[in-house]
Structure formats: structure tokens, C-alpha cells
Amino acid sequence: MSKAKSPRKVGDKEALSVGTQIRGSAQKLGLVAALIRNKKAGDAMNILQFSTKGMAVEARKVLASAIANAENNHNLDVDALVVAEASVGKSITMKRFATRGRGKSTRILKPFSRLRIVVREQEEEA
User: Fold this and answer.
1) What is the side-by-side order of every strand in the sheet holding 14-23?
2) How many whole angstroms separate alpha carbon 88 and alpha carbon 115?
3) How many other C-beta atoms can be found within 10 angstroms of the C-beta atom of residue 18?
4) Cα separation of 51 and 106, whole Å?
5) Cβ(101)–Cβ(109) under 8 Å?
6) 75, burial (CB in 10 Å: exposed 0-12, middle 13-18, buried 19+)
């Protein structure tokens, strides 16, 4: 009488990792995600390691998690992995306020983003 097992959200030769609460705007994270799309997983890790963008640190953690999921959960070859998808979306936005002169205040928005990375095992071309 248990619930039926949910189907996989990705293909058989794919592994997924999602960062749900990444502190920063989706626009800044999207620039970093564009750097690693359709690159080999090892090359993408190097790009993120030496990138000067601040969001690259969080993106690297999500990519490392996707590679670990592929290796441990789905028995995929780590050397043949390619970043098939790196999509970014908005998450929550914290609203804060800053006091201003003459009894007034202004709004401060602190956005969070989501990063979804899918790695795929790709056969070597001969």
C-alpha cells in the first residue's frame, strides 16, 4: 500500500543535480551557466575553478554533485560526461528594508536562484 515509485526526470545515461537556494540573482548565475553548457565535465570544472565570477563557486558545487550522482547512483563513466543542460531560474526573494533620513525607508531585495545541471554520458567518436 505504498506510493508508486516516481519516474526518473532524466534519461538513462543522464544524472541530475539541482541547487535550489543559491544566493544571488538569476541573471548573474545565468552568465556562469552559459560558460559550461555543452562542455566536458572536467573542462567545465576547470572553467568554474578559475572563473573570476562569484557565482562560479556555487555552480561548481552543483556540478560536482551532478558528477558524483552520475558516478555513484547511475554507474556512469566520469571521463565521458558532458554538461547536457545548465538551466537557471528564480527562487524566493527576501525583502528587507533600510532606514533613510527623515523617517523614511527603502526596500532591499535579496534574490535567490535555482540551478539545474544535467550531465550525460557521451560515447567517444572514433
Assistant:
1) 14-23, 105-121, 81-99
2) 5
3) 15
4) 34
5) no
6) exposed
Strands, E assignment, 57-121:
81-99, 105-121
DSSP-based three-state secondary structure for 13: coil
Helix (H) or strand (E) holding 99: strand 81-99
Q: How confident is the model over 17-40, as pLDDT tens digits?
A: 999 999 999 999 999 999 999 999
Asked whether the whole model's pTM tops 0.85, one would answer: yes
Cell numbers at 59, concatenated? 555552480
The answer to whether residues 49 and 100 touch, using CB atoms and an 8 Å cutoff, is no
Q: Retrieve residue 55's grid coordinates.
A: 557565482
